[in-house]
């Protein structure tokens, strides 16, 4: 049975490099829980570790699907099961790492299997989403308990609520009551959280954004739009959406860089807030001290 730890923290806090360092010393493989790194061809804006940065450590959750392929948290559920079995067969440990704490929370607490979405249901959802405001109001009237947790401008979650409704014929609250969540991770996961001072994190975000632009961020996003249009959910991610606005002539290049930095910093704040509110018992330290603690705890 593989031992497993999870390293969490905001974007640009140094999680990927720390995970590689730990995996090398601990005979482990890495499972990345990142909402952009999972996509093939989204390389620069995702800041996924390059082959050199992976340092021959086997990574999963990176370059798994194409931007136009269906994606939801259940992909990470099946991916985790596959990686856990592979680690067990290879007598390796498992390091889970990522800024998308929601996916780790779903693995630990469980998620309900979603109903199969027929072509007819997909058409109903698409029709409803043409007027998101009305779609939200309709679902709120049918299921206020569930919808009060969703912002009126949260396109992704409104669409998911509609999918449950049209696929099952039940409101989300009723559906989840009949289909309670089952935890995917069965054995213990020790949590470690990187704490980074605000000014240091902002500096790292600024440097990373400048590096992305130098390395071809604009060309990458333009190519993604050409290949996949702006329809996939990933095309609304931080870094991609701002670049599309730049391509539309809304921003100058300087303003583009500023917007990406600002919105990335906001994302980092949301990630930290989520981790502090949804997880408990994790060791929370600055990265140098956290690395020492991990090595001490693991005995490496």
Account of the 3D structure:
With 300 residues, the chain is α/β, with parallel strands linked by helices. The protein has 2 domains: 4-110 and 183-298, Rossmann fold (3-Layer(aba) Sandwich); 119-178, Histone, subunit A (Orthogonal Bundle), CATH 1.10.20. The chain has 14 helices and 6 strands. The chain has a 6-stranded parallel sheet, sandwiched between helices. Helix 10 (198-214) crosses helix 13. The model has no long low-confidence stretch (mean pLDDT 94).
Structure at a glance:
It contains 14 helices and six strands. It has 300 residues and is an alpha/beta fold.
Which helices and strands occur, and which strands form pairs?
Blueprint: E1 4-8, H1 15-26, E2 28-32, H2 51-54, E3 59-60, H3 73-89, E4 93-98, H4 101-109, H5 119-128, H6 132-142, H7 144-147, H8 155-168, H9 172-178, E5 190-194, H10 198-214, H11 217-228, H12 240-247, H13 253-278, E6 283-285, H14 287-298
Helix pairs in contact: 1-14, 5-8, 6-8, 10-13, 11-12, 12-13
